[in-house]
Design goal:
heterodimer, A: alpha/beta, Rossmann fold, 2 domains, six-stranded mixed beta sheet, 9 helices, 36% helix, globular, B: mainly alpha, ABC transporter involved in vitamin B12 uptake, BtuC, two-stranded antiparallel ribbon, 73% helix
Chain lengths: 243, 294
């Protein structure tokens, strides 16, 4: 919750389509301040669509509230300036640019608005969290491994000093050990106060760090629960499949 | 056999026209870096630079340097309007790349014909920036305007390389070309960057036109040859690489100059495009590659 008791992010009746296809049926969910919430569901459930919709990358119907203000009609850039940022599916790193350039651009919206030492502090935080990035500052991002690119994508998102971090399938294409490393970093960031909304296919790993979960199926939220209340893999599978 | 002063004279000539082609090619690079599209209206900006300067100078109200400044600003404004009215709506519709290129060609033809109807089909020129006799070393003649061309080009190339390498705005422009959605997530004003890029590209074309007009002429029909040759230079240098575009321009300028010397003026284009074909087979990414492609 925010200071006035409202959710940090609240979505009401949000829907989206690609052409004639409804990718997201009217869906509602909320994320409270300081939470890690995971959105689960099978392929094609609309999870990525939901993330893109929150970030304003696709046209939507319905309402999105962030810090109590409606942002449904705001363009992506304004939502980013308000404190929402997205690590997109596939990482979205700028391959021809170096690690350092990617990180600098992560703080683009803050230059001229915050003191330089605060941006330097963000660099220190990212390099502290992901020391491998510090070793590869001058390397072109496109030449890094998948795990390193994911670290860079998360690091770049942190450079904007967000209030809400959205991640779309951060484990995609990564080995389990690397996925574990990334998710543990997210858990550490959450302990420092960062609110996280996470889409993941690898449910067991995500459920280890999340406090609540939503399940999407066929573009609709079909279940919402505290992760502690999930009985086991069979119960989760039943929700995925609609049994 | 040719004597050394003849060889050097054609070298000087080639460098001069090569700098102009380089500026046109850099204009291609700037737009490609920001949007990923190839703008075949680039030569029109060269033509407009010369035409606007001539028209304002002819009024007699303004000194030549101010006419040049007005011309650059007016052409930059046209570049910005072109982006807002034509490129932006087409990009929003996710128009295929080759259709975007056709659209830029269409705009080039429209603007060319507009100029034809407004000022006629005559050729125009205006005085060189520094009046006076050319410099001579041995048998080599160095036109004063040539010094302006080379110096201005080198300075502009240096500023552009610095823009993309050292400034946040330059890196943001590259980000817009690599992935505009990610750029918007990073709070980069993608649409504004595109407008700036088109304005900058148009301004560079205008500068090329203003620099070259005192040595040749300007007229409505110079746009297409400059577009084509500038594009060839951009490809040879590496599409999207400003420094590469400059070097590509010099290469094309020298190729054309020495074609005239060793063959005849009629072989200029044959030699240029033969070298282009060679590059496409052997080194399709150009000499220096692109700044925005992996």
């Amino acid at each position: 919750m925010t200071a006035d008791g409202k959710a940090l992010l609240r979505i009401e009746g949000l829907s989206a389509s690609y052409g004639q296809n409804d990718a997201l049926e009217p869906s509602s969910l909320h994320v409270d301040l300081g939470e890690i919430v995971v959105v689960l569901g099978p392929n094609g459930a609309g999870k990525s669509t939901l993330m893109r919709a929150i970030m304003g990358l696709i046209a939507t119907r319905g309402r999105i509230y962030f810090k109590g203000e409606e942002i449904s009609q705001r363009p992506t850039r304004q939502r980013a300036s308000a404190g929402v940022t997205l690590v997109p599916e596939g990482r979205g790193i700028l391959g021809p640019l170096t690690v350092m350039e990617n990180l600098e651009l992560g703080a683009y919206g803050r230059y001229g608005r915050v003191p330089k030492h605060e941006i330097r502090r963000s660099f220190d935080k990212v390099f502290g969290l992901f020391p491998r990035l510090a070793e590869r500052k001058a390397q072109k991002a496109g030449l890094m491994s998948g795990g390193e690119q994911q670290m860079l994508a998360v690091g770049r998102a942190l450079m904007s000093d967000p209030s809400l971090l959205l991640l779309d399938e951060p484990s995609l294409g990564l080995a389990p050990r690397v996925t574990q490393e990334i998710l543990q970093s997210l858990a550490a960031l959450n302990k420092e106060g960062l609110t996280i909304l996470l889409v993941e296919q690898k449910a067991p790993l995500a459920l280890e760090i999340a406090g609540r979960a939503y399940v999407l199926r066929s573009g609709r939220v079909v279940a919402a629960m505290h992760t502690a209340d999930i009985a086991g893999p069979e119960a989760l599978a039943a929700l995925y499949l609609g049994a | 056999m040719y004597d050394m002063s003849t060889i050097l004279q054609f070298l000087v000539n080639g460098i001069g026209i090569g700098c102009i082609y380089g500026l046109v090619a850099i204009g291609f690079a700037v737009i490609f870096n920001a949007s990923g599209i190839v703008n075949f209206a680039q030569g029109v900006f060269v033509m407009l630079g010369g035409i606007f300067t001539y028209v304002t100078f002819k009024t007699g109200y303004f000194p030549l340097w101010l006419c040049a400044v007005i011309s650059v600003m007016a052409t930059a404004a046209i570049g910005a309007i072109f982006q807002i009215l034509i490129v932006r709506p087409l990009l929003k519709k996710r128009t295929a790349l080759f259709m975007m290129i056709l659209a830029t060609l269409a705009v080039a033809v429209i603007l060319e014909n507009a100029v034809l109807h407004l000022v006629g089909d005559r050729s125009f020129s205006f005085p060189p920036f520094s009046p006076g006799p050319p410099f001579k070393w041995g048998g080599v003649v160095l036109d004063r305007q040539m010094i302006w061309i080379v110096t201005s080009t080198v300075v502009l190339v240096g500023l552009l390389v610095a823009l993309y390498r050292y400034t946040l705005v330059g890196k943001a422009m590259k980000a817009c070309a690599i992935n505009p959605q990610v750029a918007s997530i990073l709070s980069i004003p993608v649409q504004k960057m595109l407008v700036y890029s088109f304005a900058l590209s148009a301004a560079l074309g205008a500068v090329a036109g203003i620099l070259i007009t005192p040595t040749q002429y300007t007229a409505y029909h110079i746009a297409v040859p400059f577009s084509v040759t500038g594009f060839v230079a951009a490809l040879i240098g590496g599409l999207g690489n400003p420094f590469g575009a400059f070097v590509g321009g010099l290469i094309v300028g020298l190729l054309q100059s020495y074609s005239v010397l060793f063959f005849s003026a009629g072989y200029k284009e044959v030699v240029t495009f033969s070298v282009l074909l060679l590059f496409l087979f052997v080194r399709p990414g150009g000499l220096f590659g692109s700044l925005v492609e992996d």
